[in-house]
Every structure is written in C-alpha cells, then in structure tokens.
Amino acid sequence: MKKIILTAVVVLMATISYAQDKNKKMTFDVNGKCGMCKERIEKAALGVKGVKFATWDIPSHQLSVIMDENKTDAMKIKTAIVAVGHDTKELKATEEAYNSVHPCCLYREDNSDDSGHH
Amino acid sequence: MNTYIKLLIAVLLPFAALSQDKVEGMVVDGGAINATLGLPGANVYWMNSQIGVVTDFDGNFSIPYDAQYHKLIISYVGFESDTLTVDQPRKIKHTLNPSNALNEVVVNQKRDAVQKAYFSSQNVVTINSAELLKAACCNLSESFETNPAIDVNFSDALTGTKQIQMLGLTSPYLLITQENIPMVRGASQAYGLTFTPGTWVESIQITKGAGSVVNGYESISGQINTELVKPLTDNAVFVNGYANQNGRYELNTHLNKKLTEKWSTGLYIHGNKRTQKEDNNGDGFLDAPLANQINVMNRWQYQDPENGWVSFLNVRFLNDEKQVGQLNFNPDTDRVDQKFTAANLLGAPVLNGTEIWGSEINTRRFDTSLKLGYVFPELPFQSVGFQTSYSLHKQDSYFGLNTYDITHESIYANLLFNSIIGDTKNKFKTGVTFAYDGYDEMVLTDDYSRVDTSIGAFFEFNYDNLDNVNLTAGLRVDNHNRLGTFVTPRLHVRYTPWEKGSLRGSFGRGKRAANIFAENQQLFASSRTINITNAGGDIYGLDPEDAWNYGVSFLQGFTFLDRPGNVSVDFYKTDFKNQIVVDWENPREISFYNLDGKSSASSFQVEVNHEILPKLELRTAYKYYDVNTDYTAGNLQKPLQAQHRYFANLGYTTEVKENGAQWRFDYTVHALGKQRLPDTSSNEEAYQLGAYADPYSLMNGQITRVFSNTFELYVGGENLTNHTQDNPVLGADNPFGSNFDTSIVYAPIMGRMFYAGFRFKL
C-alpha cells in the first residue's frame, strides 16, 4: 500500500512538474563564493534563451531560476554556467573555464562565503 | 514489472539506429504502474564534464559522445541515480528506480535578503538617514544643506523659508514626491517642504534631469522623492527635541507598534513653536516668523510576503501659523488687508499713516494616501501597484494690504503594472494616471478659481545587459483640460566604459501649468503691482510651460591612498519652448508673461568625494550656472542666482563602540559668487541696490555625541561667520509706501545661530 502511494506521488509529481510550464521555478546548487560570482552566474543563466529570472544566493549557493520549459531545461542552464567557470552538481567546469574567473572567485580552493568582501 | 521492461526493450531495440557521435536513448520510469512510461526531465550527463541534457516529454534523450568520458550519469529527483559505463556511441534504454529516501529531498527556496545593486540608468543620488542627521534641523527644506545636487536659497525676507533649486531652476520645475506620490505642488509649492518634519524622512532620492515618466509629466529639471519612516522598521519609540538660540523649539515623537504578523502602525507627532521676537538688524521687522505648527501623521503598514501583498495607508493633518512683519504688529487690532476691511468697512482702507505692517500665513492641510502593491508569488519580477491620494490644502493669508487665500483640493491615482519581456534583462512598467486639482484662489480681490483634470497612460521600458549598458526609455500620453493632449518622451542611458566608470546621458520633456501666485508668494509682501501681460491662455491667461532637458554625466570611482573616492562631472541644459517669465525688473511691479524668445538653464558641476584621512570624508563641488531668459528688457541672467558656487563638507566619525557610542563631527561651507539683483535703478537713491550682490560664504558645523543606541545629543551652529544681508526689507521705514519690497533676498537674514537637541530611541 505504502509503495503504491509513494509511486502515485512520484508519478503525480513528475506529471505536474512536466506539464510544460511557461513559468517553471527551479532551484539548484551552483558553486561560487562572492558577489562577483553572483553577477557572473546570474548573467550566464539569463543568457540562456527561455530563462526569465535568475538569482543566486551567496551563503546557500542556491540558484533560483524561472524559465519557460518550452524553450529550455535545467541542463542547458547548467551548461551555460559551467561554461563561465562555475561547477554544478551534475556538470563540472573545465580547468580552462574555471581559471578564467577573477582570482578572488576561485571557490574550489576556499569555498567560503566571501560576500562581505565584494 | 521487470518482465514488462524486458518486453519493452525487446520491442524497442529493433528500432534503434546508432549514430556516429551521439548516445541516444530513453529513460523509463521504473516506479510507474505502467513501466513503459518514459521519464521526462531526467538529467543525463557525463561525469566531470560540461555536457548534459534533460530527457524530453517522452523520456528520450540525445547526448553528444566524447571519447574522453566513459561514465554517463542518469539522475532525477526522487529516483536513485545510476552511472552507466559507455565506451562508444550507442542506443541506451535505462530504467530509473524510485528512491525510498524521498523524504531526504528538501526543496530549498531561499530568496535574497538584499537585492542586487541596481546600476540605474538615471542619475540618482540617495540621501540616507545618516546623511540627513548631518544637518539636524528641522524639515525637508533644510535636508539638502550637505548635498551639492541641490542649492538652497532664501525665498523672502520675512518667512525665512528656504527655497530649493536644481540645475539652476527653482522647485516648481522639480517633481517633488512623497513615496512616489506627487506632494509639493500647486498651493503647497511655497511652504510645502517645510511641512515634512526631518525626523519623518527615511531617505531622499534625487534624480537629476528628466526623470521617469511613471510619476507624471510635470518634472522638468529633476525629481526628488522622499521615503518616510515605516512603522515596521522605525524605532518603537523615538523622541527628538530641538531648541535654538532664536527661540525656536521643535518636538518630534514617533510611536510604532507591530500589531500582528502582518499589520503595523505608527503615530508621528511634530510640533514647533517660536514666540520670541528677534530683530537683530534693527529694521523694525521680525527676522524670523512667530510660528506655531502641529503636524500629526498616522501610518498603517500591511505586509504579507507569502502572498505578495504590501500596503500603506497614511492620514496626516497639519496646522501651521506664521506671523511676520513689524515687531509690534498685533493681528487682532492691526490687520488692514483689503478683504478684511472690505468686509468691515465696505470699502478700501483709508490709511492714516499710523498703520503697522504685518502678515499672517495660516495653513491647514489634510491628506491621505493609500498604496497597494501585489507581487505575484510565483513570479517575483511581476507586480501590480496602485497609489491614490487625496489632499485638501487651505492657506489663508494677508501681507499688509494684500490678501491671498488659496484652497487646493487634489485627487491623484496611479495604477502600475511591472513585468518583463522574455527575461529580467528587459523590464517594463506601464499604467494609467488620473489627477484632479481644484483651486479656489483669491488674489487681492480677484477670483482666479479653476479646475484642472488630466488622465494619461505611460509605458517605460528598461534594458540591462547586466554588464555595461542600461537604458530606460519612457513615453507617456496625457490629456489635460488646460494643457491639451501631449506626449512626454524621456530617455536615460548608462554606459560603463571601464571599471568604476559610468557615463550617463538623458533627455526628456516636461510640461506644466504654472501657479504663478502660489509659486511667487513673496510678491505679496511688497508694494509691486501685479501685471499679467498676456491674455487668452488657459492658465491665468498664460500658456502652459513646456521644456526639454538634456544632460550628460560621468562618474568615476577611484582608490587613492588605499581609501575609496569618486569624482563626477555633469552638464545639464534645460531649454524652454514656453516659460512663464517672472519679471522683477521694474521695482514698481511684477510681470508674468509668456516667453518671447529664448530661455535656458545650463549647469555644470564637478564633484569630488574622498576619504582623505581614515574616517575623515571630504565632499567638495564646484558649480557653474548660466540661467538666462529673454525679458522685455532684454536677455538677462536670472536674478538672485549665483553663477559660481563652491561647496565643501567634511565629516569625521569615530569608531562605533559596542554599545553604539560614537562621536560625529560635521562641517560645511558654501561659497556663492556674485548674484545679479533685480533692477532698482528707477528707485530713489536711498532705495537703490547695486547691480550685483557681493560674493559671500556660509559655514555650518555640528557635533553629535552618541552615548548609546538609545540616546544621543547634538549641538551645532549655522552661519558661523555671521554674514547677513544689510537691508533685506527695502523701504522698511514706510512699509505702506511705494518702495516697500521684501522679495530681494540674496543672503541670510539671521546671523550666527547655535542650536542643541537630543534623540531618544527604543
């Protein structure tokens, strides 16, 4: 019984979240540490066609986006973010992209909250 | 269940077509009752790569194959992630099984506490509360002393009212709003700024140049918006007392209470009084008015962030009484203005030479405003706002023989919708505005009552590329019963050529109906006759004022001696297509007429801010004005306008101790170059002023001792060099004679003055 309910919930969840939502809200982890990272991450996310709104929270490392699912998906946003040097849970930035960020933004060395400094 | 999957794979496999450089396949929902269901939205990505895709609506995916990656990860919230080893492009069918650890999935929905620093396209200066405390007195008109964007002048020799100017133009050419609702306009133009007590002000935003179209078409040289303290964020209890050497006392009390999670309310009471008669220059006239003001405001704030609602309701009542004129004037027995005597004696007053000249200006004002804001909870970039206000402003006044009564009833409503086009790089605001102004105006014995109504629609687009360009383009179309139907375009652009540099440009139109008497009330305290040269126009026989403003500015931040600073240069020009020229050039009269020829105001400003020593901030500015108008007597510089102005402010603060204790020192100097005086050459020699007033400088200083977070004391001095104008009242020896004039004021009336006050907060 329990399993059926769980399954039903999962199916329902998948259905709800995958009715092609024009204003799909989504939150995921992006690594970074400071205000400069915030600007870079948000700019990269908003650069993806279909992303309407993007805000990255420094202390929690959470990127909240609102996007049109007809035009884009989470992986496209993550691809754009790793391209400017910021790691996500799934995709990792190349060494080259990572090294292109400002020296103070090198979060892999010291992944602290540096929001007070920038 | 597995049988089904195997069956499905068996069925589907024959259809698989392998491609050279892609891994294609399908992700199946292993938890579905019918396990043939594709799983849409699953993540498919190469481990430690930059390549990832999401499965489509049917669960299919196609990911580029790269020989350097071997581990393909398939994951989805609520399912166990799987890692597949893939060594060549091939077709994959994979089933994800539901994770039993579903309860570990935490949906995080944190929002930013602080919004991203917005690099506005408009040239906006914000004066915050710390800056406002630098000049501890007393009301909004005196809040600009430490800011070079605004010049403070003296309106007349009697009331001591300070008149503000921006870009060389007086306050009627500014749109002065309170929380974005037009406030100081119409009948309140002359004294309106003195009706907002300084402690009520949370911050002031000064926009140089055309400004936004959202708040109307009236602004020509700039906008000043005042944010008042909010019940939710202001101190629960705040008391401020102030007294100065000249017998002015002020008391401000704020009481704020959070009633529920959503409702808060605040009660703000201001009173000021001056009963002491001061005449330091010995001209027989009061140097400052005998005054009495009570000003009470009640605010209600409603905040429901979960559902996206914000609302403010304000109710305010004001009673302000001023008495000016000769020292021994007694309003009960000495009043001789025409309205008063006409009612009593059925005729014009017959002067016997023993009358005492005096004046009373009594104002009562009621205003209320409502703001409603709704932010769509699912769409933080989209909101609807509604603002409405009602005010009733009643001024009864007389100046010697001249009666001036005005009642101004005003209704304003603005509906605003904010959203985006595509993404938050392209924002827009659009809405409609309605305004009603009913004026009941009695000038001497002439009735100038009128009603103005207008309705308009606006659209403002903002583009921000999140890097070096920000652009705001606005357009509004209004229909006004006296100004006609007209279009107001405004454009602001910011470009960042390099780090810490910001280049701005703007242009825009403004149009307004000049309330010639309310805006130039100082004329009544003179024996000048009023002369409106034109007839046939819709406003006092005159046409609407219409002007274009253009400006460029450049701001550059720098670090010098390891401490931050910035330098800014700006140039603005206002070109009038029509202006109501206020002509003081004949000492026997004041004339109002439509501009015939050219009129423009140019301003150039260089400002440098730097922390020159640790904790010592210097702000300094030089300003040059060229404000010239074609008068009937020819093209002249605007009278009582210093073409060169210099400003410096030094502020020093000590480190704040743990309990909030601190010392703050502040010193300001204003230097004004020579000012052209209105022509008085046709007066008898004793009543002639020169062509120009001499340059002079003014110094103010203040020391604040903060004892703790709850108590602080301040002492200060104004006009420390004790510079005053020798003869502010022309013809003071015979105030009912033809030479009497109090309108030519170019320097302070009051000499050096010290004050002290305290602030108590809980």
TrEMBL record, chain A:
This is Copper chaperone CopZ. It comes from Cellulophaga baltica. GO terms for molecular function: metal ion binding. InterPro entries: HMA_dom, HMA_dom_sf. It holds the Pfam family HMA.
TrEMBL record, chain B:
GO terms for biological process: siderophore transmembrane transport. Its main location: membrane. Pfam families: CarbopepD_reg_2, Plug, TonB_dep_Rec_b-barrel. It is found in: Cell outer membrane. The keyword Transmembrane applies. GO terms for cellular component: cell outer membrane. PROSITE patterns: TONB_DEPENDENT_REC_3 (PS52016). Residues 308-720 form the TonB-dependent receptor-like beta-barrel domain. Residues 1-19 form the signal peptide. Keywords: Cell outer membrane, Membrane, Receptor, Signal, TonB box, Transmembrane, Transmembrane beta strand, Transport. Residues 120-222 form the TonB-dependent receptor plug domain. GO terms for molecular function: siderophore uptake transmembrane transporter activity. The keyword Acetylation does not apply. It is a multi-pass membrane protein. InterPro entries: Beta-barrel_TonB, Beta-barrel_TonB_sf, CarboxyPept-like_regulatory, Plug_dom, Plug_dom_sf, TonB-dep_rcpt-like. Belongs to the TonB-dependent receptor family. This is Outer membrane receptor for ferrienterochelin and colicins.
